[in-house]
Write a structure and sequence with these properties.
The complex is a heterodimer of chains A (about 100) and B (about 230). Chain A has about 100 residues and is mainly α. In chain A, about 60% of the residues lie in helices and about 0% in strands. In chain A, helix 1 runs antiparallel to helix 3. With about 230 residues, chain B is mainly alpha-helical. In chain B, strands 1-2 form a two-stranded antiparallel ribbon. The longest helix of chain B is centred in the last third of the chain and has 33 residues. Classes of the chains: A mainly alpha (about 100), B mainly alpha (about 230). At the A-B interface, helix 1, helix 2 and helix 3 of A face helix 1, helix 2, strand 1, strand 2 and helix 4 of B.
Chain lengths: ~100, ~230
Amino acid sequence: MSRRTLVLLGLLLALVLAGGVSYYASGDPDGLAKVAAEQGLDKGEKAHDLEEGPFAGYETAGVGDGRLSVGVAGVVGVIVTFVLVGGLAMAVARRRRERAPQ
Amino acid sequence: VHVPDGFIDVPVSVGAGVVAATGIAVCLRGAGRELDDRVAPMAGLVAAFVFAVQMLNFPVAAGTSGHLLGGALAAILVGPYTGALCVAVVLIVQAVLFADGGLTAVGVNVTDMALITVVVGYLVFRGLLRVLPYSPAAVVGSSFVAALVSVPVSALGFVGFFALGGTADVSLAAVTSAMVGVHVLIGIGEAVITALTVGSIMAVRPDLVHGARDRAPGLVLRPAPGPAGAS
């Protein structure tokens, strides 16, 4: 399998997982949230400064349908992380090439 | 959920921010040795995959869920420096875009879930590969154990931050046992996901599993077949 095919298949899988499967994820508090509530770690918790953001809480503002709301947020997250890290990695690779002795 | 705002006091949050920023700077330098133009898209994919799978909370005990952290997986697939960058960017995106993890807690979350998981996961993985005879199964098994260990150690990292700068007065012993207990269970999920993913890549392109490349039998040089009659 070529690298390109592998990356495209992997991205497709990530989009399906974040954009579709994530709706069916467990809604229970995770390990940290559970322990924090039980042991009282959260007494000083403050609201998130960006909790009114368009994708806060993995929900898309203005989208009523729950499945679509989390799906859009998931797809946005996959694309944003891929572009940011892929771009950063390209920049690091380019810098190395420019510094390398010819 | 990642550590929200207000769990850890300001001085310790700032200190964790310095640790995280230093770690990211070290990783940017080290990633130069791991990355080239062909590997860079793999790094983007690993980050996107970790983001996606972190959305998939799985049940671990009554009324409790867990999700992948991804540090061990990322380090094994693209190298520890690049892997830590992948998870750090995921955590920063989650804090800024998805309000998951406090903005003042980014340093704590990056240190705990990007740096600690990568260091622990990669050291365990490489240590196991060193003592085990090479086989694809050994690579997958080592990734399982590395991922399993990385999660409770990350939970201990959080307890450490809370001990230094927690804003609530709690029993650290009780918090430690509760955090480690639930995160061993979450670690099993982390291990299954990590082993499945590493196993899938090993099946199609074992040369793209960065952490195991140098252990794989490479090209074997054989003498060219001689003319007929020669030995």
